[in-house]
């Protein structure tokens, strides 16, 4: 079940070649300059990476979720910024529209997103609503055939680039009979008056990915921009995040693999006391631990992907997604710490990629549901009434 098919392995090679030629040589410079390489994103589009799971009628190849995870893993093996750009573009940009959109919405937005000529963001997080995503304060009111949106979102990936075509945002659209907020999702085209993607964040890592705070002030979009049914926003983002968790675990897997490969190579070359450091158990055992993390994360990521591709029950997939996300992302943080240690002082210098991987890894334990949230979801899936 966890063995990748021959087809997946061949596909892995083609993405690996692309990443080695088009991304790896430039990743350090993009990181240093905080540069979002639109031209490379569009090349990834021409390779078909954004359309891997999209139907052919929108320009996709109608492939499986496993293929997408393979692509994300391979891109992240050289650059997490580009890995997360792909992950968010598909998982958070394309998927909500593909899954919940009307035929007209799909025809309007998907062809460009699938081609990778445009990007879409997914605005859920707000200044006062992150883990507690249902506490959204952004409001949308129907007025004269239009939604009028007021509020703010923060930390939104792919939301303010020069090729961002739209963001889907969650907003309170009323109150349910039980007094809880009615949450709906609305598509907001880039350039709509009242919608502003503010200056990009200055982040610890993922410097070459596009992340912005968003503000909405008397922002009017047609009533037809409602995504799916009114009041279904909560269920929509929960489903969106389940897939996203496996995909972000694939980013983490790429990071662990890179740490392993960099460490094996360096430990074979670097000598202290007259012999390569890899001959010393203190170093070699740490690298052995990296191999265990890489293999375990691989099994968990591709088990979750296989469950999705096989149409497993939502409960089984949801639990496997959280398990993969939790293990792979926490292991990625540990792996970057170990790799940095193996590199000694050079591990602290930007001339080696290991430094960039160290900075990039931390957010993996936070985005798309923190480690604490994953533990909460896993505990609940075991029947524990954890709050
Ligand atoms: C670079 C980047 C990109 C992002 N991209 C997107 C995006 O595209 N779209 C989007 O909507 N969001 C995005 N996010 C937001 C991200 O998903 C949130 O930051 C994350 O869900 C955590 O929310 P928070 O930051 O509000 O932390 P909080 O919810 O305030 O959590 C703070 C701490 O409290 C802990 N905590 C909270 N509740 C509990 C609990 N019940 N039990 C135990 N511990 C708890 C958390 O685990 C965390 O350690 C991005 C964030 C970053 C940094």
UniProtKB/TrEMBL annotation:
<dbReference type="GO" id="GO:0050660">
    <property type="term" value="F:flavin adenine dinucleotide binding"/>
</dbReference>
<keyword id="KW-0285">Flavoprotein</keyword>
<dbReference type="Pfam" id="PF02770">
    <property type="entry name" value="Acyl-CoA_dh_M"/>
</dbReference>
<keyword id="KW-0560">Oxidoreductase</keyword>
<protein>
    <submittedName>
        <fullName>Acyl-CoA dehydrogenase</fullName>
    </submittedName>
</protein>
<dbReference type="InterPro" id="IPR046373">
    <property type="entry name" value="Acyl-CoA_Oxase/DH_mid-dom_sf"/>
</dbReference>
<dbReference type="InterPro" id="IPR009100">
    <property type="entry name" value="AcylCoA_DH/oxidase_NM_dom_sf"/>
</dbReference>
<feature type="domain" description="Acyl-CoA dehydrogenase/oxidase N-terminal">
    <location>
        <begin position="5"/>
        <end position="116"/>
    </location>
</feature>
<feature type="domain" description="Acyl-CoA oxidase/dehydrogenase middle">
    <location>
        <begin position="122"/>
        <end position="219"/>
    </location>
</feature>
<dbReference type="InterPro" id="IPR006089">
    <property type="entry name" value="Acyl-CoA_DH_CS"/>
</dbReference>
<dbReference type="InterPro" id="IPR013786">
    <property type="entry name" value="AcylCoA_DH/ox_N"/>
</dbReference>
<feature type="domain" description="Acyl-CoA dehydrogenase/oxidase C-terminal">
    <location>
        <begin position="231"/>
        <end position="382"/>
    </location>
</feature>
<keyword id="KW-0274">FAD</keyword>
<dbReference type="InterPro" id="IPR036250">
    <property type="entry name" value="AcylCo_DH-like_C"/>
</dbReference>
<dbReference type="GO" id="GO:0003995">
    <property type="term" value="F:acyl-CoA dehydrogenase activity"/>
</dbReference>
<dbReference type="Pfam" id="PF00441">
    <property type="entry name" value="Acyl-CoA_dh_1"/>
</dbReference>
<dbReference type="InterPro" id="IPR037069">
    <property type="entry name" value="AcylCoA_DH/ox_N_sf"/>
</dbReference>
<comment type="similarity">
    <text>Belongs to the acyl-CoA dehydrogenase family.</text>
</comment>
<dbReference type="InterPro" id="IPR006091">
    <property type="entry name" value="Acyl-CoA_Oxase/DH_mid-dom"/>
</dbReference>
<dbReference type="InterPro" id="IPR009075">
    <property type="entry name" value="AcylCo_DH/oxidase_C"/>
</dbReference>
<dbReference type="Pfam" id="PF02771">
    <property type="entry name" value="Acyl-CoA_dh_N"/>
</dbReference>
């Amino acid at each position: 079940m966890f063995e990748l098919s021959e087809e997946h392995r061949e596909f892995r090679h083609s993405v690996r070649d692309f990443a080695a030629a088009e991304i790896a040589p430039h990743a350090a410079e993009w990181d240093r300059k905080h540069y979002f390489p639109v031209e490379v994103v569009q090349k990834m589009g021409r390779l078909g990476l954004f359309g891997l799971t999209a139907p052919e009628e929108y320009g996709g190849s109608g492939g499986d979720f496993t293929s997408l995870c393979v692509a994300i893993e391979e891109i992240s093996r050289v650059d997490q910024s580009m890995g997360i750009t792909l992950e968010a573009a598909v998982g958070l940009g394309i998927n909500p529209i593909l899954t919940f959109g009307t035929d007209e919405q799909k025809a309007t937005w998907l062809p460009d997103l699938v081609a990778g000529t445009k990007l879409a963001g997914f605005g859920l997080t707000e200044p006062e609503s992150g883990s507690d995503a249902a506490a959204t304060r952004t409001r949308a009111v129907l007025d004269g055939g239009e939604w009028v949106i007021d509020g703010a979102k923060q930390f939104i990936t792919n939301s303010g680039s020069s090729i961002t075509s739209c963001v889907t945002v969650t907003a309170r659209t009323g109150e349910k009979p039980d007094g809880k907020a009615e949450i709906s999702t609305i598509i907001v085209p880039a350039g709509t008056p009242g919608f502003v993607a503010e200056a990009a964040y200055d982040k610890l890592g993922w410097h070459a990915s596009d992340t912005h705070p968003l503000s909405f002030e008397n922002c009017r979009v047609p009533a037809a921009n409602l995504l799916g049914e009114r009041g279904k926003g909560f269920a929509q983002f929960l489903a969106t995040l389940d897939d996203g968790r496996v995909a972000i675990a694939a980013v983490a897997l790429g990071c662990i693999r890179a740490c392993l490969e960099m460490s094996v190579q360096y430990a074979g070359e670097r000598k202290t006391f007259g012999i390569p450091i890899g001959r010393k158990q203190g170093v070699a055992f740490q690298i052995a631990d990296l191999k265990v993390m890489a293999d375990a994360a691989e099994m968990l990521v591709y088990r979750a992907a296989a469950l999705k591709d096989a149409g497993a029950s939502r409960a089984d997939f949801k639990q496997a997604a959280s398990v993969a996300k939790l293990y792979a992302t926490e292991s990625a943080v540990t792996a970057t710490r170990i790799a940095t240690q193996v590199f000694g002082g050079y591990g602290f210098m930007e001339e080696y990629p290991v430094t960039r991987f160290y900075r990039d890894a931390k957010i993996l334990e936070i985005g798309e549901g923190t480690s604490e949230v994953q533990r909460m979801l896993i505990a609940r899936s075991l029947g524990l009434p954890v709050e």
